[in-house]
Design goal:
By secondary structure, the protein is an alpha/beta fold. It contains 19 helices and 13 strands.
């Protein structure tokens, strides 16, 4: 049993408070709105949500849930504070942190008046960096002591949907705690002992972005389905049937496949088919902003890699892998062919190692594509990793060809793993880290 103060009695806060109290934790809700406080005191839900009215009533009658406007009182009578106050958009679209900042300051001031161990959990949706750069120093200053074993701050994003919020609380995809500086989150995880879901502790920035990524992905799926539906209608197909069948594929479509961030996509299918759909839409004057942005987005990801390589200052480069997928010699619309073509055009001295590619065996459209984009490929290929390492001052890991190589033994320079460099911190890795880095799954 942990005593909890939940700040903000809106949809998220009221559901969180009621469910926590139901699960055996005495809860005091805190809100500036007198009407919300009075409603909970009378056993009524201040918001309309299926099942919430009965839950609030039962918990209020049992003495497990009450509410107040007094921040100091709530802090004195709790061990953990959960912040569920709103973070609405400002006129320019940015996130407003005013309410969260005010509550954090008031909690800190209450703790200064009566110092003791306390944990502040941010459940409100905030962009990465706000908790670390703004809330942490604010709480520390207001409390008059640094964060540490006695004063903790973390985030705990929620995944509740209005209309099914209680069900979502009880059956979430996971419970995620974002911790600062390796802090152990057992006391917060214990609040969810009765929840049957994976319990995950990660860094606070990743936990913050997780909520935004999930909502952006949901929005993306709705927009994608609608654009496919619009295309289907124009082509005489049934968009609902198309998307029903799309969802039947749980190996690739509704699955983790293609959802590992890494490098740009390529190959003989994806670019060609996206191009065909968008070109048809243009001819028929059907506006498809989402699908039309896919190829430009992919191109921009490639440009990020080029800027990263240029920023290294190295002119002699070694590229490990050239085909769009390791184990094949298919060069058609490989993003690494485009990368090599651009780097050569900008004067870089490039060599390439890909054991599957034999220029004399390339034929058909594959040979034509190579002749158009890398006509001197034979002069760029080397037949051993040793020769690549001897040439380069910067090694670029492109495909999983790198997984089979002991580059750490042969190369003393800088290694840039393009399978993770654009999406993770510390893109440049030392040779002794190559085995771990090379094991990352490529997109």
């Amino acid at each position: 049993m942990t005593r909890v103060a939940v700040f903000g009695m809106g949809y998220v806060g009221c559901v969180t408070a009621a469910c926590l109290s139901r699960d055996g934790h005495p809860v005091v809700g805190v809100d500036v709105d007198t009407a919300k406080v009075a409603a909970i005191g009378e056993g009524r839900s201040p918001v309309t949500e299926p099942g919430l009215e009965d839950l609030v009533r039962s918990q209020a009658q049992a003495g497990m849930l009450r509410a107040t406007r007094d921040v100091s009182l709530a802090v004195r009578q709790s061990e953990i504070a959960m912040l569920t106050v709103g973070t609405p958009s400002t006129p320019d679209g940015a996130v407003s942190t005013a309410a969260v900042m005010r509550v954090v300051r008031e909690i800190g001031e209450a703790l200064r008046a009566g110092p003791r161990d306390y944990t502040v959990v941010v459940r409100s949706t905030l962009l990465p960096g706000i908790l670390e750069s703004e809330l942490a120093p604010l709480l520390s200053d207001a409390a008059g002591r640094g964060l540490g074993a006695g004063l903790q701050l973390c985030n705990n994003p929620e995944f509740l949907r209005e209309g099914t919020a209680i069900r979502d609380y009880d059956s979430p995809p996971f419970v995620v705690i974002g911790a600062l500086d390796g802090w152990k989150a057992e006391n917060v995880l214990a609040l969810y002992d009765r929840i049957d879901a994976p319990k995950i502790v990660t860094d606070s920035r990743s936990a913050s972005l997780l909520k935004y990524a999930c909502n952006a992905y949901h929005a993306l799926k709705v927009a994608f389905a609608n654009e496919v539906g619009s295309l289907a209608k124009a082509l005489g197909a049934d968009g609902r049937e198309v998307m029903r069948l799309v969802c039947c594929d749980t190996k690739l479509n509704i699955s983790p496949a293609y959802l590992r961030p890494g490098f740009a996509f390529g190959g003989s299918c994806l670019p060609k088919d996206v191009r065909a759909l968008t070109r048809y839409a243009e001819r028929e004057a059907i506006r498809l902003p989402l699908l039309s942005a896919v190829l430009p987005s992919n191109h921009e990801h490639l440009q990020r890699a080029i800027r990263l390589i240029e920023g290294s200052g190295c002119r002699r480069l070694g590229l490990v892998g050239l085909s769009f997928k390791a184990g094949t010699d298919d060069l058609r619309e490989s993003p690494f062919v485009a990368l090599a073509e651009t780097l050569i055009g900008r004067g870089y001295d490039l060599r390439i190692f890909d054991p599957v590619i034999n220029v004399s065996r390339l034929c058909g459209r594959n040979r034509a594509y190579m002749d158009e984009h890398l006509p001197h490929l034979a002069n760029l290929l080397v037949d051993s990793p040793r020769k690549l390492c001897d040439h380069a001052s910067l090694l670029l890991l492109a495909t999983d060809v790198a997984d089979e190589l002991d580059l750490a033994a042969d190369f003393a320079g800088t290694i840039l793993d393009l399978r993770q460099a654009l999406v993770a911190n510390d893109p440049a890795i030392a040779p002794d880290e190559i085995r771990e880095a090379a094991g990352a799954e490529t997109t």
